[in-house]
Amino acid sequence: MTVADRADRPERPARPTIAQLREVTQPPEVRLRANAEHWTASLYLRDLSPYLTSVFLRLGMRANGVTGVMILVGWSTAAALLIPGIAGPVVALVLGQLQMLVDCCDGEVARWRDERSPAGVFLDKVGHYSTEALIPVALGIRAAGWPFDAPEDFAWTTAGLALALVIVLNKALNDMVHVARANAGLERLADRKEEAVPTSSRLARVRAIARFVPFHRLYHSVELTIIAFLAALVGIVAGQVAVDRVLVLVLLPLAVIALGGHFVAIMASKRVRA
Prior knowledge:
The protein is built from eleven helices and no strands. With 274 residues, the protein is mostly helical.
């Protein structure tokens, strides 16, 4: 937004009402985005976020400062999984939801204050990438039976690191598409579902079938904390370390399959076509 645009815009109140916040910070183009909105946002977080956004505004916080809070909550989510037993996953489950709530708020603060910037997008990426890398590392440490001292326990920490690497690579593929298009001089992709549909009818059918077994969606921080919590419940009966090890052994190969499928889907879609 230019300086002239800012001058023409009516002054916004320092203490907006929830209705005012919803009108400005949750327009249809935000609520109806195909890929940028997590399902928890659509389900309930966007109903709650204006209340927390109003608190951030009253504290005088800027959008990047709120994103910083989101990053810290994300890191705390991963750290919570190092608490033994079921207590760690319970705390991580709550913090994972809180991170997504604050993630809604930083965009709302940015839209209210007209503070959109590349720095804000960059910090948001840092928050999600680092959190979704640290959570599987923490799961690997849990699988090793933290605290651990046997050399063979390092196989589980290595599995956690491998899972983190695959998850980060999978996330990076989407950003690689935008970088590739920008370097090729193509226009920015619209956030529409049809852009991701493979051009091959056979691959399109496979993609449609995959929606019924959406294991490729298990690797967001929210889903990982939910899975860790469910595994901890089973671990009360079956043994926590044993269940944590099964969890890592299941997540790692599925993540590799999801990575390969994601790559093929991108190459077969309109996203990387001139």
